[in-house]
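User: Here's a structure from my thesis project, written as structure tokens. My advisor, Dr. K., wants to see whether a designed sequence matches the one we expressed. Can you design one independently, without my sequence as a hint?
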């Protein structure tokens, strides 16, 4: 009864605040509610705890409430957040041997008034490393030997080995951008998997603070007036769960939302036609492709993987699905990042060569023309995102292309919270419950792709969902990870890309250029290559 009464009080306050916002003047158009930003995301989160985030919408919402040590500006250059400066060898933040990194924290407070200190950073690292916690990845955090705190505002990290991407990985804009959490609230629990905090994170340090999670509908956040970088320009954010993209487009058209978060590329024509919205394109270190599960016997054969790559016309896929807005990928690193090697060539489209490879692997046509071996058909199971119009179209095109070379593909669609959940929570992708999975990937600002490609990074120690393990790949990655010199790292990444073109654990279709649709009245939106919400305190409407 008390819980119901408390919730009713919260909602009464929320509605009163919303009414106040709607009555404010000075907006550009009559449909805009000054100070209130209404966002549509395509999936309800499973958790609001940033350390348990498994999807980009969950990470996006978490960053509105919690901060990392470092973020990045729109060009991808690191910028300080909770840390006062970005550690480098030049400023003494990174030791000459690359084994010690020192952070000085800004003065900041949690919303309950308790200072943010080194204790919070250390506990958050310990929580990620705690094997009882269902975190998605420990990549980079596993390389920490110990962390000390000479004083409450200084963190000194000692690495077990040099790790060149560390500064852009550790509570920064990595492929799993974790934020720092309040130790004084959470350190009494043996694990964080089933806490009330995960649904009601009432203590935070970001520009916005939690108000309510209306299940099946929205999350409500109010401005945090004590935010350490200054009071936010918005008073409230409503994050609405809109799983159908057509519905989200209609809500943009009727001005019921102001920001459509990361729509799929297939929505481009409809969004481009909206008169009162604009599309913001974000160049990301990411790709769209299909991952192959090498732990399954059929796909452990490199000839089968190369045949699948040769059967897929990536140019046609990009042309049909992306409306000409994406660039066909060679391998994973995009052509704008410093580590890109233009000499690398992917497997060319050649169905005849694909059939010949499969024949050499012992697969022969059966009476129906489909391939078989020892009476066993060549059948693969493809997992895809149920909420993504792009992946629905991709799945059918991939299915048809592989059928043309004699491979039968059964497609199954999953909601995001199941498809991308951590392995310990039954996730399809991270749990390896697929033969093929359509793979949308957003990496960090560093070219580091080791979390997807090294033998030691099978989930939950990374994102090697393909279960790919190669001594040559590990050796090239070790060079890229251990050397801080950019020229040396660039040569290592060239070797990495060439190995991908031969081994094909993932077939890369195109490099991502992420669209976001926003109202013409929404200002200050300047996403970086990893995080749309990194500068949310500067947003206004």
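Assistant: Designed independently from the structure alone:
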């Amino acid at each position: 009864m008390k819980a119901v009464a408390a919730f009713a009080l919260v909602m009464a306050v929320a509605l009163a605040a919303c009414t106040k916002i709607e009555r404010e003047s000075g907006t550009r158009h009559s449909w805009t509610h000054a100070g209130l930003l209404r966002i549509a995301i395509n999936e309800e989160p499973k958790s609001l705890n940033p350390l348990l985030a498994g999807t980009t919408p969950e990470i996006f919402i978490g960053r509105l409430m919690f901060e990392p040590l470092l973020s990045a500006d729109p060009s991808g250059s690191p910028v300080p957040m909770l840390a006062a400066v970005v550690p480098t060898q030049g400023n003494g933040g990174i030791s000459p041997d690359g084994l010690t990194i020192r952070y000085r924290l800004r003065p900041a407070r949690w919303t309950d008034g308790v200072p943010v200190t080194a204790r919070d950073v250390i506990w958050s690292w310990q929580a990620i490393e705690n094997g009882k916690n269902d975190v998605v990845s420990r990549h980079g955090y596993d390389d920490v030997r110990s962390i000390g705190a000479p004083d409450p505002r200084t963190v000194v990290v000692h690495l077990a080995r040099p790790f060149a991407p560390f500064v852009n990985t550790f509570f920064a804009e990595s492929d799993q951008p974790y934020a720092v959490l309040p130790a004084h609230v959470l350190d009494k629990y043996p694990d964080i998997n089933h806490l009330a905090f995960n649904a009601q994170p009432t203590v935070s340090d970001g520009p916005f603070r939690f108000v309510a999670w209306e299940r099946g509908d929205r999350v409500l956040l109010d401005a945090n007036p004590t935010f350490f970088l200054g009071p936010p320009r918005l008073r409230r954010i409503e994050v609405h769960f809109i799983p159908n993209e057509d519905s989200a487009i209609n809500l943009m058209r009727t001005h019921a939302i102001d920001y459509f978060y990361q729509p799929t590329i297939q929505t481009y024509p409809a969004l481009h036609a909206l008169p009162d919205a604009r599309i913001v394109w974000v160049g990301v270190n990411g790709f769209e492709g299909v991952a192959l599960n090498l732990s399954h016997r059929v796909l452990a054969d490199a000839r089968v993987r190369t045949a699948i790559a040769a059967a897929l016309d990536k140019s046609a896929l990009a042309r049909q699905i992306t409306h000409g807005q994406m660039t066909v990928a060679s391998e994973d690193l995009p052509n704008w990042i410093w580590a890109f090697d233009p000499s690398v060539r992917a497997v060319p489209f050649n169905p005849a060569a694909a059939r010949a490879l499969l024949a050499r692997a012992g697969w022969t046509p059966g009476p129906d023309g489909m391939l078989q071996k020892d009476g066993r058909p060549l059948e693969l199971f493809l997992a895809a995102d149920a909420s993504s119009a792009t992946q629905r179209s991709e799945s059918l095109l991939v299915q048809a292309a592989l059928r043309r070379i004699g491979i039968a593909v059964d497609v199954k669609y999953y909601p995001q919270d199941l498809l991308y959940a951590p392995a310990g929570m039954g996730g399809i992708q991270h749990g390896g419950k697929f033969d093929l999975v359509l793979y949308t990937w957003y990496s960090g600002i560093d070219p580091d792709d080791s979390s997807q490609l090294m033998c030691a990074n099978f989930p939950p120690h990374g994102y090697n969902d393909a279960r790919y393990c190669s001594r040559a790949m590990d050796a090239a990655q070790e060079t890229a990870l251990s050397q801080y010199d950019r020229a040396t790292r660039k040569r290592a990444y060239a070797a990495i890309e060439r190995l991908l073109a031969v081994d094909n654990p993932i077939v890369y279709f195109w490099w991502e250029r992420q669209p976001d649709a926003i109202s013409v009245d929404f200002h200050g939106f300047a996403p970086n290559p990893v995080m749309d919400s990194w500068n949310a305190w500067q947003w206004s409407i």
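When you compare it with your expressed construct, this may help: The two ends are 38 Å apart (CA to CA).
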